[in-house]
Structures are given as C-alpha cells and as structure tokens.
C-alpha cells in the first residue's frame, strides 16, 4: 500500500468529517402530531441524518428504528428528581428507553439529553440540586448496560449559564451563582468523553431587548471587535463566549454541540418567514464550509430548532414558541431553505398526509362585531385553540376584525376535529366550505388525529387477555 493511497484515505476522512451533517430537533407538543412514520420519511427525504428528541416516546423511537438516523433521546426536567434520587429508576429508564430500542428496534441512539435547559433563570433554581445527580445516575446506568461507548450523556443548557464580564466573548465565564456546579458538570462530561450542549438564540436576545441590533442577530452587521478578533454575527460571539468560559476553567478542548438554534416565523413582530429564512439560511451557509468560529475553527455540530410547529407548546416565554418549525404542523415547508441535501435545493414536504374534510368554522356574515357574544366567544376559542398567529406584524396580523374572529373560531373547531358542537358559538358562527385563508394567513384544516401503536396495542391485547383467561378457567 503506497503513501498516495494513505493520503487519499486521510483526505477522504477529512472531507467526511468537515461536511457537517444536517441535524434537527423533533418536538411533539402538538394537538395533532404527524404520525411518526410520516415524519421519519420526511426526515429521510430531506436527508436530515440526526435528530434530537425531548423525551423517549415509544412510537417515535420505533419509527426511527427503520432508518439509520442518529438519535438523541431526552429526559424531561420533571423526571430529574426521581432519577437523581434513585439509581434503580435511572437503570429502568435506560433499560426501557435506550437498551430495548437499540437491541430490539434497531434504533441508532447516540446521546441521552438529561434535562432541558434546567438552569434557566426563570426556573428559579428548581433543578439545581437534581440535574447533576441525575446525569451521574444515567451515566452509571449506561455503563452497567455496557452502552458507555455507544451512548453519551449530555445536558442541553441555555446560553444563560455563561455570561461575559466585559460584553466581549473574551470576558466569558460561567454564571457566578452556578459556577461551581457548572465546573462539576463540565468535569464529569469531560471524563466521560461527552460534549457540552448549548442552545443559542439570537432571536430571544432581540425579543428581550428592542434595541438589540437586528442585523447583528441575523448575521450581517458592523463587526464587534474583541482585541484582534472581529465578530460580525451574534452566533459566533455567543459560541466563543462559551469557548472562553471553558478555556478559563481548564476545558478549552471540550467538544461543543449546539442543541438548538433557529428563528420562529410567527407570534412576534420579528418572527416572520423573511427573517427566519434569512437567519436559518445564513446560519447553514456559515457552518457548511466547516470554517467554525474565530476562536474555534472547524466543523460546528448544530441541531436546527425546529422541525415542525407545535401548537401545544407553552406560550409563557412568548407566542413565538409555537412557530419555530421549518415545516408547518402538517409537514409543509414554510419557506425556501436549502439544506444542501436534496436535488432541488428545496425542502421536501411530508407525503401522504391525511386531512379532515375541507371545511372551516367562521363568523356568520350578518353578525356585528359589537355583538355582546363575540368577545366572550373569541376568548373561549383562543384559550383552547391557538391564536398565536394573530399578533401585530405576524403572518395573520393583517386580518380585519371579522376575519380575526373567524380565525379564532376555526382554530378551536379544527383543534376539536371539526366536531359540529365546536362550531356553535351562541349563534354567531357557521361552517363553510369556502376557504377563508388570505394571501399571508392560512386558516388551517387539521390532520387526522394519530393514535399511537401502543394504545392500539392495548385494545388488541385486552381481548387476547380475556380469551386466555377463559381458556384457563375452562381448564380448571
Ligand atoms: C421512558 O420515557 C418515557 C417518555 O419520556 C417516559 O414516560 C417513561 O416514564 C420512561 N420510562 C421509564 C421506565 O422511566
Ligand atoms: C419563579 O419566580 C417568579 C417570581 O417569584 C414566579 O413568578 C415564577 O412563577 C417562578 N417560576 C417557577 C417555575 O417557579
Ligand atoms: C437545594 O439544596 C439546598 C442545600 O441543601 C437547599 O437549601 C435548597 O432548598 C434545595 N433546592 C431545591 C429546589 O430543592
Ligand atoms: C385581531 O386579534 C389580535 C389578537 O387578539 C389583536 O391584537 C388585533 O388587534 C385584532 N385585529 C383587529 C383588526 O381586530
Ligand atoms: C339565531 O339566529 C337566527 C337567525 O339569525 C334566529 O332566528 C334565532 O332566533 C337565533 N337563535 C338564538 C338562540 O339566538
């Protein structure tokens, strides 16, 4: 074997390593999630090779088992205290939600995300005591199961776990009130060859501070200079603040995974298709060359947030929460976005999606907006439906008063699977077969509800159980 051959092999290895694979977050807090098989097919059609989940739903994992897609399963914050206090519980979690799926369903699980942004300031320290012990117990359980080389633990943290004393990346360090805890966690991750996972959101910076320069968030601004280094986008600056924080504490080489990054398309004046496209495309183009950031050259591993809109996400952080998807709830691409993975350069929509009937619930044309029933009905409909697209500046922000009311009614009606009684707002609503959508605002028709295989399994299992019982009874 000549040296030329070795060089070719090395070059190939470098090329493979430098082409970062496309990753996305797949959340399922939706009233009508697409069937997992449909989503997995959509992932494959778009050549998305790695997904991050927020839990370990059986059907989702089973569907992923038929692909070679690499999976990060998640542990919700609510489970941390149980897993922290009981190694048995952690072993059970690993057995059911990792080992079984690897051995019997052939799922390519590579990471377990322990908690989701548990140290977020708005949680008031609720998970400070339990996150690390849970992380340690899950690691122990993985090791006991012989999976420690194949499956790595990590803990997706919000970028608010670090800060900078100087407004520049070079001043980066971990937040003072959790500094020691962060070092404990980082040291543990490092000992187990696990990455540091961080979620970075330029959009939230803009949302929290109106004066935040929007073109810096989007990535095309007057550079910020940090000594010799120039930063012309917020992602690089934020990421390098973390690199500095790690380096300052003796972990300068620690691998970093960006657990979430993205831009929403609705629910706020800065959340629209134009900005989302600009940010996400800009970000993908930025990382696709494998150039990295000024402080950390090389490929960047990042999971886009998010794959599909989720109409049941909490809107406590803001209405935008339900609009992070690259795809709508029914798997339609929202804008032209080139991941560099499909022949056409465009996103491929979900196939074989089953919709309810072509009908909508709207306000009766002869009813007046000042009818005393209107306000109360709208507030009822919005509290159970989803009206987060109605704010100023978002996709449905230009509707007039009556269209607004119709939007609310329709949302409630569709969310309730077009049940007749869900379009009976004290005589002021009616069902129509004429699409009320406008050029920018879609009045959706819901998709068929999906019933999990597990639930169907029980229905199937019950008669079987009874039959067995009868057989046994007749024997004795
Ligand atoms: C496995 O994960 C699911 C979904 O997150 C969770 O509901 C369940 O409690 C977990 N199983 C165990 C044994 O912890
Ligand atoms: C955190 O504290 C604030 C203010 O005291 C309170 O409004 C909020 O509900 C708390 N959040 C949680 C998750 O406990
Ligand atoms: C965490 O532990 C400290 C010290 O033991 C205790 O004071 C604090 O109340 C605990 N916090 C929570 C949220 O349990
Ligand atoms: C439509 O509804 C939204 C959200 O409730 C509200 O902000 C907006 O002012 C309404 N528009 C009209 C024209 O009534
Ligand atoms: C509903 O409206 C129709 C016609 O607009 C009217 O005849 C009927 O009395 C109304 N019913 C109620 C309960 O208000």
UniProtKB/TrEMBL annotation:
Residues 359-443 form the X8 domain. One of its GO terms (cellular component) is side of membrane. It is an enzyme of class 3 (hydrolase). Its main location: membrane. It is found in: Cell membrane. SUPFAM superfamilies: (Trans)glycosidases. Pfam families: Glyco_hydro_17, X8. Keywords: Cell membrane, Disulfide bond, Glycoprotein, Glycosidase, GPI-anchor, Hydrolase, Lipoprotein, Membrane, Plant defense, Signal. Residues 1-21 form the signal peptide. It comes from the Eukaryota. One of its GO terms (molecular function) is glucan endo-1,3-beta-D-glucosidase activity. One of its GO terms (biological process) is defense response. The keyword Signal applies. The keyword Disulfide bond applies. It is a lipid-anchor; GPI-anchor. Its EC number is 3.2.1.39. It catalyses: Hydrolysis of (1->3)-beta-D-glucosidic linkages in (1->3)-beta-D-glucans. Belongs to the glycosyl hydrolase 17 family. This is glucan endo-1,3-beta-D-glucosidase.
């Amino acid at each position: 074997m000549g040296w030329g051959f070795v060089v070719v092999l090395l070059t190939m290895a470098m090329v493979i390593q430098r082409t970062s694979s496309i990753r996305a977050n797949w959340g399922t807090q939706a009233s009508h999630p697409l069937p997992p098989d449909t989503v997995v097919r959509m992932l494959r059609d778009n050549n998305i090779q790695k997904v991050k989940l927020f839990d370990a739903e059986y059907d989702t994992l089973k569907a992923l088992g038929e692909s070679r897609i690499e999976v990060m399963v998640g542990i919700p914050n609510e489970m941390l205290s149980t897993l922290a206090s009981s190694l048995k519980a952690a072993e059970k979690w690993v057995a059911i939600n990792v080992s079984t799926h690897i051995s019997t369903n052939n799922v390519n699980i590579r990471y377990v995300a322990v908690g989701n942004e548990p140290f977020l300031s708005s949680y008031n320290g609720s998970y400070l005591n339990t996150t690390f012990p849970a992380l340690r117990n899950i690691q122990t359980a993985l090791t006991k199961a012989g999976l420690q080389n194949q499956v790595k633990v990590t803990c997706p943290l919000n970028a608010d776990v670090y800060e900078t004393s100087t407004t520049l990346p070079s001043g980066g360090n971990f937040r003072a009130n959790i500094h020691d805890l962060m070092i404990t966690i980082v040291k543990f991750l490092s000992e187990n060859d696990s990455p540091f996972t961080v979620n970075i959101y330029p959009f939230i910076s803009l949302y929290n501070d109106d004066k935040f320069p929007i073109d810096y968030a989007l990535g095309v601004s007057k550079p910020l200079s940090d000594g010799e280094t120039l930063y012309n986008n917020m992602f690089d600056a934020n990421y390098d603040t973390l690199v500095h924080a790690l380096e300052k504490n003796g972990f300068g080489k620690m691998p970093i995974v960006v657990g979430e990054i993205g831009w929403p398309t609705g629910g706020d004046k800065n959340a629209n298709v134009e900005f989302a496209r600009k940010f996400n495309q800009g970000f993908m183009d930025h990382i696709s060359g494998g150039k990295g950031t000024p402080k950390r050259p090389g490929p960047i591993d990042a999971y886009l947030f998010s794959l599909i809109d989720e109409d049941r996400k909490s809107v406590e952080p803001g209405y935008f929460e339900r609009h992070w998807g690259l795809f709508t709830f029914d798997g339609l691409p929202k804008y032209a976005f080139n991941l560099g993975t499909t022949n056409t350069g465009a996103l491929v929509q979900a196939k074989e999606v089953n919709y309810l009937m072509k009908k909508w619930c709207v306000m009766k044309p002869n009813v007046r907006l000042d009818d005393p029933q209107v306000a109360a009905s709208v507030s009822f409909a919005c509290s159970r439906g989803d009206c987060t697209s109605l704010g100023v500046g978002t996709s449905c922000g230009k509707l007039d008063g009556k269209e607004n009311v119709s939007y609310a009614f329709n949302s409630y009606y569709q969310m309730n699977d077009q049940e007749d009684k869900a379009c009976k707002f004290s005589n002021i609503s009616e069902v129509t077969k004429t699409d009320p959508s406008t050029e920018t605002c879609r009045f959706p028709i819901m998709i068929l509800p999906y019933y999990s295989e597990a639930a169907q399994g029980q229905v199937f299992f019950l008669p079987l159980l009874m039959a067995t019982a009868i057989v046994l009874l007749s024997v004795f």
